[in-house]
Amino acid sequence: MNPKNTMKVQRKIKELILKGLDRESLSPCVIPSLLVPKKDEGMRGCVDSCAINKITVKYIYPIPRINDMLDELLDSKAFSKIDLRGGYYQIRIREGDE
User: Fold this and answer.
1) CA 63 centroid distance within chain
2) Does residue 98 lie in a domain region?
3) What is the spatial distance between Cα 34 and Cα 9, in angstroms, rounded to a whole number?
């Protein structure tokens, strides 16, 4: 990369860090991020997450909809964090779950 483009990239990275959109990763898994030139002479950030997607465990059960969860709590008068957390795990996911 020539010095002019290097300065552009460094400015863009500093700008993203100041906005809080970019930060140093503490993850043991590396995800490359690239700055790609746009048609209007600017730069656009791209993230290649193929590697992390390969090692991510897929969740096989669907997450309950918020409407169904609220219907379960319809007649309740008072709530605590324990009630809400416990209620989440008591909603049946599939027919036959007990």
Assistant:
1) 16
2) no
3) 10
Task: Tell which residue, 6, 72, 12, 90, has the closest CA to residue 46.
Answer: 12
What is the rounded distance in angstroms from the CA atom of residue 8 to the CA atom of residue 14? 10
Q: Considering the domain boundaries, does residue 67 fall inside one?
A: yes
Does some domain include residue 38? Answer: yes
Q: Which of 84, 82, 51 is nearest to 70 (CA)?
A: 84
Could you tell me the two tokens for 95? 């027919």
pTM to 2 decimal places: 0.33
CB 23 within 8 A of CB 17: yes
The mean pLDDT of the chain is: 76
Backbone angles phi, psi at 36, to 5 degrees: -115, 135
